[in-house]
From TrEMBL:
Species annotation: Spirosoma utsteinense
SUPFAM superfamilies per record: ClpP/crotonase
Name of this protein: Propionyl-CoA carboxylase beta chain
Region (Disordered) location: 1-44
Domain CoA carboxyltransferase C-terminal: residue ranges: 276-522
Domain (CoA carboxyltransferase N-terminal) ranges: 16-272
Amino acid sequence: MQTETSPGANHANLSKPSKTQLLDQKNAEAELGGGQKRIDAQHKKGKLTARERIALLLDEGSFEEIGKFVMHRTRDFGMDKEHYLGDGVVTGYGTVDGRLIYVFAQDFTVFGGALSETHAEKICKLMDLALQNGAPIIGLNDSGGARIQEGVLSLAGYADIFYRNTRASGVIPQLSAVMGPCAGGAVYSPAITDFIFMVENTSYMFVTGPNVVKTVTHESVTAEELGGASTHSTKSGVTHFSCANELACIQNLKQLLSYIPQNCEDEPPMLAYDAGGDEMRPALNSIIPDNPNQPYDMRGVISELVDADTFMEVHTNFAENIVVGFARIGGRSIGVVGNQPAVLAGVLDINASTKAARFVRFCDCFNVPLLVLEDVPGFLPGTDQEWNGIITNGAKLLYAFCEATVPRVTVITRKAYGGAYDVMNSKHIGADMNYAWPSAEIAVMGASGAAEIIFKREIAEADDPQAKLQEKVLDYTEKFANPYRAAHRGYIDEVIMPDQTRHKLIRAFKMLENKVATMPKKKHGNIPL
C-alpha cells in the first residue's frame, strides 16, 4: 500500500531509487495486491489469488497485463490515505491453447474486491478491446460488491459494464466464474454473460444477502443456502457449472472454450478425425426398452453417438428432464439437446424449456450445429405449470429453434407426441435433417388417450368396455404410433436402424457445413420472455 502523494512510501528511509528500481518496486507492489497477510487469509479460505487464477487459466508466459498501476481517485472517508496499485482488479490478455483470450480477475485482497470507478474503467477498457478484436472475455469474479465510499460512481461503473455485456452478447463469448462473493448489482454482469461457473462452498450469488432477507421476510438462511453453488445449480438454474474447487472450475472454463469459436463470425474449432473407422454402434439397437413406458438414460444414447469422452454437459443438475451440452461428432463441435426419459418421462416443463432455449440460442449465436434427440410425451400438465407460464416458457424453446440458422439435425428415438413434437426441432420449424428409429411413435398423443377420445361412445356401449378399449388402442398404435406416416409425408427424411445413427450424423453434419440461411430484415424479434 502507498499514498497517492508519496509513491515510494514503503522505501522512504532509503536513498532515492533509480528509475529502474522504482519500476521494479511498483511492479512488486502491484503484484502483492493487498499484502501478504491478506493473501494468506485468501489461501486459508481455500481460495486462490487473482493472479494465481489467471496463471492457471492462461498458457504459461502468455499473460500481458493492462492497467497494472491504476489507482482510485476517491478522497472521501479517508480513502485518500489508502491506495493499492491495480485497484482491486487484474486485467489483461493472453492465450488458452494458443487462442487469444481477454481476462479480468477481481482481487479480494484489495478492499474485498469492491468495484470502484477506476476498477470498472479497467474492466470496460478490456471489454472494448475484446469486442473490437473478436475474442472471448472471461471474468473471474470475487468481490464484495460496490465500493460504498464512492457512492454513485461505483453504481455507474456497474452500469457501464452491464451495457458492454449486452453489446457484446452474441458477438463474442462471455464466460463468468464466480469464485467468491457476488452480491447486489454485481450479479447482473454474470447473468448477462453466456455461461456461469461457481465453486462449491466458497462462492455465492444473490441480489440481497441473508441479513436483508431476514429483515424483510423473516427467513433465516445462510449465504450458502441462499445463493451457493449447489442452490444455483439445482434450484434456480442461475449457474451452469458447479465445480468442486477452483482448479476444477478453471479446467472446465478451458474445456468449454475448446468447443466454441472466437466470435460470431468464426467457426468452432474442428479436430482432426479419421473417417475410415467403423461407425456402427450395435449397442443402440437394444437401448430402447420393449415397454414404451419404461425409462432409459438418454446419456447412454449420447455417449454412443458422439466421439469418445467428448460430451460436456451443461446444467447437469437443473431441469434434469432435458439434457444439454457440447460434444464432438467426427471431430466437429456440436450442441446436443435431448429429452431425458429417466426423469419425469422426459416431459417438457417450464425449467426444461428455458434451459434448452438458452442453450439453443447460444449455439446459434456462435455457429455450433445442433443435434436434437427426441423422446417426449408432451408438456407437463398441472396448475403449477399453467399458473407459472408454461405457455410462454414453452414458447421460448419453440422460438429458439425457429430462429436458429445453424445446421439442425433431429433423431426421434421413441415418443414424439403433440405440440412437443413440433417444438423439439421438427421439420416444420426449420430442421435440416430429421431421422427416426423404428421405435419412434409420432402422434398427437399416446394411443390409450387417443383411443379413449376417438372411440368414447363405441367403448361405452360395448359389452366389455375394457376389451374394446384395448382393441382400439392396438388399432390406433398400428396406424399412428410409428414413424411411417410422418415419413410418407416427408416430415421424416429417413427411418434408420439405431446402430446406423452415428454414421448418418457424421455425414449429415458434413453435408450441412456450408449451410447459409438468412432471416427477414428486422431490428430483433420479440421472444416471449
